[in-house]
DNA sequence: ATCCGATGTCAAT
DNA sequence: TTGACCTCGGATC
């Protein structure tokens, strides 16, 4: 589930449900029981996202820092039934439940991180994250030039750089594969060989794609003219719910040129690309 | 019933 | 480069 669009959507959901409301907090799973006790009954004062990090503000109590990692999930529920009817009890693996009578409840399971942190600790996290296509362009340091400064000096492949949260934050395995396909870029191209105008186009494309991801709650990257319907091919529903060009489509032909999609491990994840639409750079 | 992989990251080697 | 961690669901037996 979790790339940056998921986290930004969660921040917005938390604001809509709980902002300025006193929430009940609990941790049936236990690992965060002490932290939950410290925020229980307090008002949510802020909810923001940077890359794949979620920050829930509880005034003087500090911030709950959440990172979903690979397996973390959120479930959001509307208020149950009649007036004041309590929600169903959380499953034992729920690390953090927040609830409010009119906001419903949010259940967090399996996160890599769920911890109460201070404002300076939060700032330290921001400081080590690269610019985020989903943060406002006027947010401090949220400038694609910062990413370009690193990419343009690096011998590392662009596919690995896109996954490096210090370079650019919020992009994960789906967006990296899809955005490189959309721009016809060889994933193995060293950053320093990527044309500057291609980088700026990739950044601006990520901004649009990820905003759409926040809006829809899924990753759709296929242009209207390439949808299976438009191409006269059978429609395909991807495992993650969206329509994509290459991510986990190794059993299928490329939507544009019918070449079989390739896969190989890169930067600890499985990379997917079309060797025809993204031709390898010379040697 | 069991295995395996998954939209992630960090520390240890 | 590998192993550890967190949880769940789909494939396989």
Structural descriptors:
DNA-binding, 283 residues, four-stranded antiparallel sheet
Protein architecture, described:
The protein is an alpha+beta fold and 283 residues long. Helix content is 27%, strand content 18%. The strands form three sheets. A four-stranded antiparallel beta sheet has the order 1-6-7-5. Helix 1 crosses helix 7. The longest helix is centred in the C-terminal third of the chain and has 21 residues. The two termini are 36 Å apart. The relative contact order is 0.12. It binds a DNA duplex (13 and 13 nucleotides) through helix 6.
Overall mean pLDDT stands at: 94
Strand content: 15-25%
Low-confidence sequence ranges: none
How many helices in DSSP terms? Answer: 7
Summarize the main sheet.
4 strands, antiparallel
Rg result: 20 Å
Side by side, the strands of the main sheet go 1-6-7-5
Based on Cα principal axes, name the global outline. globular
How many runs of DSSP E, i.e. beta strands? 10
Structural class: alpha+beta
Q: Gap between N and C termini, in Å?
A: 36 Å
Helix proportion range: 25-40%
Order of SSEs? HEHEEEEEEEHHHHHEE
